[in-house]
Structures are given as C-alpha cells and as structure tokens.
Design a protein that fits this description.
434 Repressor (Amino-terminal Domain), about 50% helix, three-stranded antiparallel sheet, about 475 residues, alpha+beta, 4 domains, DNA polymerase, domain 1
Length: about 475
C-alpha cells in the first residue's frame, strides 16, 4: 500500500478474542538513503475503553504519538528520555535478564562482566550519545585492549609439610575457605591454580610463595570471542533502547561498524585413527571408575560438559538402554554451584546408549552405591552421577580438569570436553548417519545449527559418497 507523503492510514483489526487494535501506517523517509519509507505500528485498545468516544480519543492520541515518532526516526533524532546515563540503562537491562528468566545465570554473569570491562569508557555518556562515531571508537578500543595473564604453577607439593605438621586436607580446606577440589589441584606438582589460592595457602602455612609456586605474568591480546561478547552485549542494550524509542538506530549493527579483531582459538579435536585408538585404549584401562564413566559419556554420546555434570541415575534407563538429558550443573561466579534446565528446549532429549558405555555405567553404579553406603550420613541426599566428597554437586570445571590431567598422564593430545563432543558429531556425519538424527542426539536447537557448525564434515561425507558412487559405476 502506497502512502502519500505526510499522510497516515489507519486500519482497525480484531483478533480471535474480539479485541480491537489500530494499525497505523505513516509516511516518512529513510534517514540514510533519503528515500520515502512507510513506518508501521499497531496499538492495542485497552480493555477498559468501551465507549465509542473513548476509543476515538485513544486512536487520535496514538496517531499523534506515532506521527511524532516517525518524524524522529526520519530525522534520526532521539526523544527526551534518552538523556538517561547509558551505564544506568545498561544496569537496568542486566537486572531484567535475571528477573525475566531466573535460570539465565550465564547470560547475567557474562553481561555483567562485559559492562565492567567497558564501564570506564562509558562514564558521562547518555543513551542518546551512543552514535556511530562513539560506537566505532569503542570497537576500535576493543581491538587494541590487552591484559596481563598470571599463571601459577605448583613446583613443590605442600603434602609433606601437611603430614609433618599433622594437618588434614579437610582442616586446611576449612581454614583457607577453599573447596577440597581446589585444594587438591593446588597440592599436585605441575598443576596450575589461581594466585589467590596459592597466596592463601602460603599465608595460612607461613611459607614463602616462591618455594612452592612459580608465578608468571604475560601480556596478552583479548580473543575475538571476548571482544565479540562485549559487542553482543552492547547490541542487546542498544536494541532495547531502540524498542523503547530512546534512540532511532542501533549503531553497533554490522552495517555501521567495522568487524572486530582478535585471536581465534582453533578447535582441538581427535582427528586421526591412531589418536582415537590411543584415547579409547587409555579410557578402557582407566582404573578410576569416575573418570572412565565421565570420559565415556563425552566419547560415546557427545554430551556437553555441564550436561554430564547434571546427570542423575534417574536419567538412565538400564533396561531400555536410554539416557535422558534434563539439566545442567555448572559453577557460576556470584551464584555458586547451579543446577538448571538445559541450554535450549531441544537440548532436553532421550538418546540410545551403546552397549560398551552401558557396561561402563553398570560398573560405575555398583562402585557409586558402595561409596554412598560407606559415607553414610555424611553423603548428601543426591542422585547425581558425579559428586564431590560427601556427595555435594560437582561442576563441569572439575570434570574438565580430570580430562586435562588424564591426557597429560597418558601422553594424549590435549582436547577439551567440547572438542570430544565435536569429534563425536563429526564422526557420526562421516559415517553416514542422517543429519536429523545427528542434530537430535547433539541437542541442537534445529538442523540448521548442525549444518552451519559441521558444514566441513558434511562436505567431506559428500566427497566420500561421490568417490564411492564413482567406484560402483565404473565400467
């Protein structure tokens, strides 16, 4: 429908409940191309307005409001409420994340960190100040920012000192306010720990830091992923400002700012048959049943790290040979250990268990039941597969630490839990399993996600199919 310049078209609309709305179409112009543009907005008539005159008055007010807004959009100007400090508006946006979705711990924590990273660059800026030049300068700064990475490595174990002084690990853990998992890592030579943990232990035991820990400080550039997290956060905040009509355009969109820079990590996956064979051999010969079960779940099912940490025995049907993914368990700074729903609705899924994995889980269940009985009342009321001493929830970080140490011990290629998941899905595609089944087992939100992430594997499978057809059809 063409609308003549400076004119407005009003259309009445009724939904299936008989509720009245006004669709307003007003002519204006695109502020960047200068061409004519039709702006559309729908106003729902409040239920309390029943009289004809009341409805007419409401329609007239909507027309005036929309005309004013279209004028602002056409001229790329902002209304008065955009004078709100941008930091205050961003804080409000972050708090609304946890209010609207109480389980959105990760999004809340990530956005809070992003705001803290750029807070100093936003002091004194209002929402209306977030123009294209300001946003581009902020992105330029993201590309150049650097940080100092502190690596603390254990060079001498504190265990002999603890035995000499007759201090138990439990007592030291409580005295230093550190978890047993954190303490265990800090007592192993070759492991890395945080500077805070090392300083706390040395202060408590009255020993010099340099005798037991090696502290290295290195200047590093932020990764592309870290910079992109900040950009994504800003995009969400500015988009909310656009929705509230506080600004006319979201200038951090790719149409207005240059691409971000930063190092990109290469995904480490198990690629060669020799690497697979060695990984499987070491896993089958692992004597710690907890580690063997965790690594087998990564390998055979391609589960996410937090999904493995969130598994309970009730999720495994030994008779039907099926496993149901219902929840994630992870550590979130500021919230502690959190168990929440799956990443997406599609991530909640039931998948078949191969016999090899089933046998490993049966052995592990027998060991787990024995441990629970041995701990007695000290064991928390839990059904989780993987727990700390005493039965408390265990996060994915501990599982990833197990995998890291185990790979070093056995001389295996360093691969993260997500790398094993990636390899599992790639193998499934390479061996001809249809993409719909692969996507369902992986718990992706839709097939397109699988196609986008694993396009390289699909191309390889397609190339192999072409070669097989060529062999079959040769004269």
């Amino acid at each position: 429908m063409k609308i003549k310049k400076d004119l407005m078209h009003v259309r009445e609309k009724y939904n299936r409940f008989g509720e009245l709305s006004f669709e307003l179409r007003c002519s204006g112009k695109d502020p960047f191309t200068g061409k004519n543009k039709v702006y559309v907005k729908t106003y729902k008539v409040p239920a309390e307005l029943t009289g004809k005159k009341q409805i007419e008055t409401f329609r007239f007010q909507c027309q005036l409001e929309w005309k004013e807004e279209v004028t602002r959009k056409s001229n790329c100007t902002a209304p008065v409420q955009a004078d709100m400090p941008f930091i205050d508006f961003a804080e409000e946006y972050i708090e609304n994340i946890i209010k609207t979705n109480p389980e959105a711990y990760n999004y809340y924590r990530t956005d809070r960190d992003c705001l803290n990273a750029i807070r100093g660059r936003l002091v004194g800026l209002k929402v209306s100040d977030m123009t294209q030049p300001v946003i581009q300068r902020l992105c330029n700064w993201l590309n150049t920012r650097r940080y100092f990475k502190t690596t603390v490595t254990v060079i001498k174990s504190l265990r002999p000192l603890l035995r000499e002084r007759k201090i138990t690990q439990n007592a030291l853990s409580q005295a230093c306010d550190l978890s047993l998992t954190t303490l265990f890592a800090a007592l192993q030579v070759g492991r890395t720990t945080s500077l805070h943990t090392a300083q706390t232990l040395c202060r408590q035991l009255g020993v010099p830091l340099s005798e037991y820990f090696k502290v290295e400080r290195q200047e590093c550039a932020y990764s592309w992923s870290a910079n992109n997290n900040v950009k994504t956060f800003l995009h969400g905040v500015l988009q909310e400002a656009v929705r509230r009509n506080m600004i006319a355009m979201n200038y951090i969109s790719k149409e207005f700012v240059r691409p971000l820079k930063g190092t990109r990590r290469k995904k480490e996956i198990i690629e060669s048959k020799e690497e697979w064979a060695k990984f499987i051999f070491c896993m089958q010969n692992e004597t710690d049943l907890r580690k063997k079960a965790a690594f087998a779940l990564y390998l055979f099912l391609g589960l996410r790290n937090a999904e493995v940490a969130g598994l309970s025995w009730a999720d495994i049907d030994f008779e039907e040979k099926e496993l149901t993914v219902r929840q994630n368990t992870l550590y979130v700074r500021g919230f502690g250990m959190v168990t929440k729903g799956t990443k997406t609705d599609k991530s909640m899924r039931t998948i078949a268990i191969p016999q090899t994995l089933l046998d490993i889980l049966i052995d592990y269940k027998e060991w787990w039941d024995g441990e629970k009985e041995r701990h007695g009342d000290l064991w928390e009321k839990t059904d989780k597969l993987f727990v700390q001493n005493g039965g408390k929830d265990m996060g994915g970080r501990t599982l990833a630490g197990w995998l890291d140490d185990w790979q070093k011990k056995n001389g295996l290629k360093h691969v993260t839990p997500h790398g094993i998941r990636h390899a599992n899905i790639t193998l499934a595609i390479a061996n001809g399993i249809d993409i719909k089944t692969v996507s369902a087992r992986a718990g992706h939100s839709d097939i397109q996600t699988t196609l986008n992430i694993y396009s390289h594997a699909i191309k390889e499978a397609d190339r192999e199919a072409a070669e097989r057809i060529d062999q079959l059809l040769k004269w």
